[in-house]
Amino acid sequence: MAGAKLQTIYGNLIRLFWGLVISVGVLILLGAGVFLGFDYIYAGRVLPGVHFLDVDLGGMTHGEVLEAVDARVDTTDVSPLQLEFDGLVWEMNPSKFGFEININQLAKQALAVGRRSNLLDKIIERGASVLGFAQPIVSKVDLVETFNKDTLAKYLRLIYDEIAQPSQNAVFVRNGDRVTEFIAPQNGQELDIKKTILLITHNVLNPNRRIILPVTITKPRITLAQANDLGITTLMARGVSDFSGSPPNRRHNIAVGAARFDGVLIPPGKKFSFLKTLGNVNASTGYLPELVIKGDETIPEYGGGLCQVSTTAFRAILNSGLPVNARRNHSYRVVYYEPAGTDATIYQPYPDLQFTNDTEAYIMMDTYIKGNQLFFDFYGAETGRKVKLDGPYIFNVTTYPEPIYIDTSTIPVGEIQQVDSAHRGADAVLYRKIYDKDGKLISKDTFNSHYIPWPAKYLRGVEEAPPVEADLENVLPDEAASEEAKVDPINTGNE
């Protein structure tokens, strides 16, 4: 009984096997018939599904393709090409460079579809024809027969000059605890004009009018790691702030103060004090009188504006993930330090801004000014840390108090001049999370800030009253401007 069942199963398997063999054989024969039949049915003609732009060339002879393509090219409005690189865009009009379409080559390309020497290409293209898939030929052939090479090369040379920049080797000259000469390494780049010309000639009629320019990147010969023996290998983080609208004395003090920190080296494990590095602030150290927030007054003193420097440094500390040992916000919100919660005030001898270099290498500060923006770049070792800043969140916003009028004989009788501006009160909180290279959370910080409401103050001229010493030329911007940040101070340089 068991033997009979096995024989039955065996027989069924044999019949199934031969059925499959016959079926596959029939399919192969049918495929071969279709494959070979195309050569007979479409001898000297374009296979179905082949298109030039919106013209179906299927079934046409070489001569018919020439006529159809020629007619279509004559009615084609060749719109400008968009040449793009790194956010820059150049608009190029092909008609200005004498491009002539190679119609004969297009016809040959159309007839070549499904007839190529490569068997796989032939099978794929004929299969697409059988299934009715469209096969455009614009992107598969050099469309251009002639063009003004000199004119095009001259035009591309202008773009080359805009893009080109030489590679920059790292320069790192140390003198004691400070770097006296520093240039960060920089990759070089240049436009590949030959490849660009090929891309243009291949895409003159392509519906996609965008061309991403081929740019060659060259590495510097001397890296930052090779230029020093302090373990400094990379840009750790950046802090930035905007001081637009600052009066001349304030700008001067910012530049002098920032220079005190340029090139400063912080050894591994060392606690850094902003005030200690800053040193004395007076006329002898190069500062000019400018407004400072002192207690419940805004008065002119030497070094006014230095909090722009400390605020920018604080933002670099935040972004680098370094531990903050001491930081205090300003008494009230100021336009130069927005958004609220990302500022740091300093004043000799207190309050100070302090942090610790908890990495295994030195940290170098690189400070510079571009336009109305101050930058603090921290260079050090690659720690693998990822810093995520959440906020700042601003809440408990309160209106500003009634203005204060001070009678004085300093100004003409009946005249009123503003000497201090109004600011709303608020609280702000900023959260920082630091992750190691494996994505593990290693630290969480919360930075709280409280800003008191601040009244506007005016001098009112009267006949008899004590004179008042006030800087009438330099008044801080009013509160309406002070709550709109001009830069994004967080997540800069450490993504």
TrEMBL record:
Residues passing through the membrane, by range: 16-38
Domain YoaR-like putative peptidoglycan binding, chain residue ranges per copy: 90-206
Residue segments, region Disordered: 469-495
Keywords: Membrane, Transmembrane, Transmembrane helix
Stored InterPro entries: Glycopeptide_resist_protein, Vancomycin_resist_VanW, YoaR-like_PG-bd
Protein name, entry field: YoaR-like putative peptidoglycan binding domain-containing protein
Organism: candidate division Kazan bacterium
